[in-house]
Amino acid sequence: MSDHNYHGQHDAGHRGGGRGRRIGCAAVVLAVLAGGGYVGYTKLSGPDRDVTAATERVREFLDAWAADAAAEAGRVTDSPEAASSLVESVMTNLGPERTVIRVDEAGVSESEAGVTVPFEVSMSIPEAGELEYASRATAVEREGEWLVDFDSPVVHPDLESGQTLALKTVGARGTILDADGEELTAASLTGTVDDGGRGVSGLQARYEEELTRGLTNTRSVVIVDRESNDIASYVTETESRNGEDIRTTIDPRVQQAAALALEEIGDKRGAIVAIDPTDGDILAAASRPGGMNRAFEGAYPPGSTFKVVTSTALLKSGMAPDTVVECPKFARVNGQTFENQDQFTLPEGSTFRDSFAHSCNTFFVDNREKVSGTALREAAGHYGVGAVWDVGAATYDGSVPDPETDNELAASTIGQGRLLASPLVMASVAATVKEGSFKQPVLVPDQVEDAHSAPPLPADVAASLRAMMRATVTEGAGKALSGIPGEPHAKTGTAEYGDAVPPATHAWMIGYQGTSDIAWSVLIEDGGSGGKDAGPVAAAFLRGLD
């Protein structure tokens, strides 16, 4: 224990039998031999020397107790094992930051039983406050040696044999709740609390002040049975107060469906986010494995899911979904070759909608001049991508830097280059298409003070995007969702990253349900392709909602 202080109101003069009231008149003389050795004490006034020695032995016991030296305290008693055990138990259970024990010298008395020394104990106990009480100890002479006559009431007058002092928590840290008011069990969201009861990550750390507000002196000192730990009585009474609860928008049914769907990815890392498009409420945010909240804070190239944003710019430039376009095997930009997955092509007469549904990279790259300048960033602005979001939790809100070269512009049209987004951002992109306007995602509504707003999508643009996302499921790369109830709309994405040859890829799928208020995103790190790998996980998630 730290900072234990024993104060018996004595100094070196006390130990010589000098200051303070004593029974009788203390007078002790040391006889000195010619050779200089001490031969012992000579009593000059009856029992006074015995009272002084007895009192000093009690002081030794109290000194060791206050210093949390249980074994030393036990050695100066007639029951060393019992005394050291109880002192250690009390000091361990209470964990005082400061212990002060003062002897009441005026109350020292002598009887046939021995010399009784009253004392006062004062402890400063974290979360329990000050504990102050009076007790007494009697010193008895055994074979010429003074020892403390130990039993449980010496440590506290209300203790009986087999009992000890302990702490009982009467107030609790607030709870992080889901939308139904039940405890939220999503570890990657809630975060962790250390052994000292302090939040160290996630919402537990962010809302430490609120969750512990009012939690001062929230534990009572109690007398308990040492074997059963049953409470016998209260030494101090503390009013029970809990910290504030933090309520989130997480729908436990949707959260469970997301967590179960992520089991499909095995040992890979991934995330699923679900949002209510009408108000931005975050219904689920699952990350696998636990620990990092990659659903909110992961920064990944979005790959072809970003073609929703690129298509927004193309539609605003005047292109229509039924505009006939080309989807060649390759597109070349200043010596750099872009190709479609497995180098597929679309037949002559294919439309913009077809290229979107099948995720034709070469079409988007070849039409990059229509989204040059600020057009791509302005299109992203409709979705809040790259702004600062006040969600009520730590988030990565995306980045859409202006391309510095034509090659970078080409890469940006297909969600590569320096573009980055989180699963939360891409779920919000899908939600914005369904709703027609951006509703900033929110996790903890009571804590959001400055939600970001964005200009709504033009009505015709929103309608076109919805049709194109539905075509992705019915005839394009999102066929994994065919037959899923709820009229799913989607966009797949396969995002290259790293320097490996061939490059490693993250698998994405984003979308929304046409018949219900839910939009979502699925990410699998190093997961393969969007349609083949992320698609089945998205399907498992949507089936889990039924």
How would you characterize the overall build of this protein?
Strands 3, 4, 5, 6 and 7 form a five-stranded antiparallel sheet that branches. Strands 14-13-19-18-17 form a five-stranded antiparallel sheet, sandwiched between helices. A three-stranded antiparallel sheet has the order 8-10-11. Mean pLDDT is 89; it is low at 1-47. It is 28% helix and 22% strand. It has 17 helices and 19 strands. With 546 residues, it is an alpha+beta fold. The protein has three domains: 12-150, NTF2-like, domain 1 (Nuclear Transport Factor 2, Chain: A); 176-247, no CATH class; 252-544, 3-Layer(aba) Sandwich (Beta-lactamase). 47% of the residues are buried. The two termini are 56 Å apart. The protein has helices at residues 12-15, 48-66, 70-75, 80-94, 187-190, 202-206, 208-211, 252-262, 294-297, 307-316, 352-358, 361-366, 375-381, 406-413, 423-435, 459-475, 530-544; strands at residues 28-32, 38-43, 98-103, 109-111, 114-125, 129-142, 145-149, 163-169, 176-177, 219-225, 231-234, 246-247, 270-275, 282-288, 330-333, 336-339, 488-497, 504-513, 519-524.
